[in-house]
């Protein structure tokens, strides 16, 4: 049976987890493309964990969303093209190119029946939804993964990091923010600006776990050891989804961070959404093991 938040939802709401953001086509070396974007990974992860997931996105008509996102309710907005990225590697250095950009998503694009979802995840990939949209969801837990608000690109499509302008105002109605050190390109000022703009911020640090910022305190939650990383794609989105879902259930920030660390660690041990664990597997691991937590001060 799928888990849901029936007690918190309006009777007309038939979803638990709403993701807003454009899917992407990620170009492969052979000229093919692979489905990407926070919207896709997070909606699939929520569904995999037993929740009723929905996605509002733009995609061209040639993207078979019903096949690629099984079990996810999708509201496809029209677009001549899907947002498309190409990554070019030179050793460990990556240059990212934006090859096509789908139009923005506004609050008016969201089906009225979904506007009372108990959890709303703003998941921009390339500046397609305004963070101020959060004001329209006063009764929801509103989480965000700001990667797409931290990207800009030049006239040729070369992507570069650009800090979010006035984060305190832009993120005023967001409850929890999850992002990685890579998202801010190691920019400490940008990191602190984001962290200080929201009640709860979690910074993922790969195999070093995550840093949790809340209530004027900072904690490091260590990661579950991973013997072999098979596919890290989407791990950050799995983490964010698991964190938002678990926090909505228990309202315990550190419990949610532990849960999310374990979820993401299982996800990288396989390929695709099938590697995302269900809640029972995560809880079973946590019942037998523990993830150390330590309070830190150097990040403030």
Structure commentary:
One of its GO terms (molecular function) is kinase activity. It comes from Ardenticatena maritima. It holds the Pfam family PfkB. Keywords: Kinase, Transferase. This protein has 7 helices and 16 strands. With 300 residues, the protein is α/β, with parallel strands linked by helices. A 10-stranded mixed β-sheet has the order 5-4-1-8-9-12-13-14-15-16, with helices on one face. It has a 4-stranded mixed β-sheet with strand order 3-2-6-7. It has a two-stranded antiparallel ribbon with strand order 10-11. Strand 6 and strand 7 form a beta hairpin. The chain is globular, with a radius of gyration of 18 Å. It starts with 16 loop residues before the first strand and ends with a strand.
Briefly, what is this?
It holds the Pfam family PfkB. The protein is an alpha/beta fold and 300 residues long.
């Amino acid at each position: 049976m799928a888990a849901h938040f029936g007690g918190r939802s309006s009777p007309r709401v038939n979803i638990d987890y709403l993701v807003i953001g454009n899917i992407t086509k990620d170009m492969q070396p052979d000229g093919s493309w692979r489905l990407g974007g926070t919207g896709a990974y997070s909606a699939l992860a929520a569904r995999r964990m037993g929740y009723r997931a929905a996605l509002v996105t733009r995609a061209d008509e040639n993207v078979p969303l019903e096949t690629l996102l099984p079990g996810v309710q999708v509201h496809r907005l029209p677009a001549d093209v899907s947002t498309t990225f190409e990554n070019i590697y030179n050793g460990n250095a990556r240059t990212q190119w934006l090859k096509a950009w789908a139009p923005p998503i506004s609050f008016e694009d969201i089906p009225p029946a979904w506007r009372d979802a108990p959890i709303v995840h703003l998941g921009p990939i390339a500046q397609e939804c305004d963070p101020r949209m959060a004001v329209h969801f006063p009764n929801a837990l509103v989480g965000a993964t700001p990667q797409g608000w931290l990207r800009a690109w030049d006239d040729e499509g070369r992507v570069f990091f650009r800090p979010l302008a006035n984060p305190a105002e832009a993120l005023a109605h967001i409850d929890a923010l999850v992002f990685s050190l890579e998202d801010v390109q190691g920019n400490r000022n940008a990191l602190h600006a984001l962290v200080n703009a929201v009640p709860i911020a979690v910074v993922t640090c790969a195999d070093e776990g995550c840093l949790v910022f809340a209530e004027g305190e900072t904690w490091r939650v260590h990661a579950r050891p991973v013997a072999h990383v098979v596919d890290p794609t989407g791990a950050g989105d799995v983490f964010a989804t698991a964190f938002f879902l678990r926090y909505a259930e228990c309202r315990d920030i550190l419990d949610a961070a532990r849960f999310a660390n374990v979820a993401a660690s299982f996800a990288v041990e396989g390929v695709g959404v099938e590697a995302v664990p269900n809640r029972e597997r995560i809880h079973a691991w946590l019942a037998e093991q523990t993830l150390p937590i330590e309070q830190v001060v150097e990040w403030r």
